[in-house]
Amino acid sequence: MPIDIPAFAYAAAVAGGGILGYVKSSSIPSLAAGLLFGSILGYGAYQTSQDQTNVAVLLGTSTALGGLMGYRFYNSGKIMPAGVIAMLSAAMIIRTVTRYFSPPLKTQ
């Protein structure tokens, strides 16, 4: 199976956002949440790289993170970071569901 590069990039963006939040404002909760969610998303990306129908971890984590950040965006109206992560999560949810229902990729 080919490597699921968009899923790994999403995981790296979430983890990187947590690190950036810590560097800019010394926010330990931002660091912890970013690294926790980024690690879980990385594991989910690894699973989908092995089998494109094994989407439970990636889909569940994307949905939870998207819901949490969407709620924060709704209450604060701040695009960064809540709005960006909510949009990335929504895009990843749509991509994951679409990929799940598409025909399997053929390997050589």
From TrEMBL:
InterPro entries, per database record: TMEM14, TMEM14_sf
Example GO BP: regulation of heme biosynthetic process
One GO cellular component term noted in the UniProt record for this chain: mitochondrial membrane
Residues spanning the membrane: 7-23, 29-46, 53-73, 79-98
Residues annotated as signal peptide: none
Keyword vocabulary terms for this entry: Membrane, Transmembrane, Transmembrane helix
Family matches, as Pfam families: Tmemb_14
Subcellular location: Membrane
Similarity field: Belongs to the TMEM14 family.
Protein name from the UniProt record: Transmembrane protein 14C
Taxonomic lineage from the root: Eukaryota, Metazoa, Ecdysozoa, Arthropoda, Hexapoda
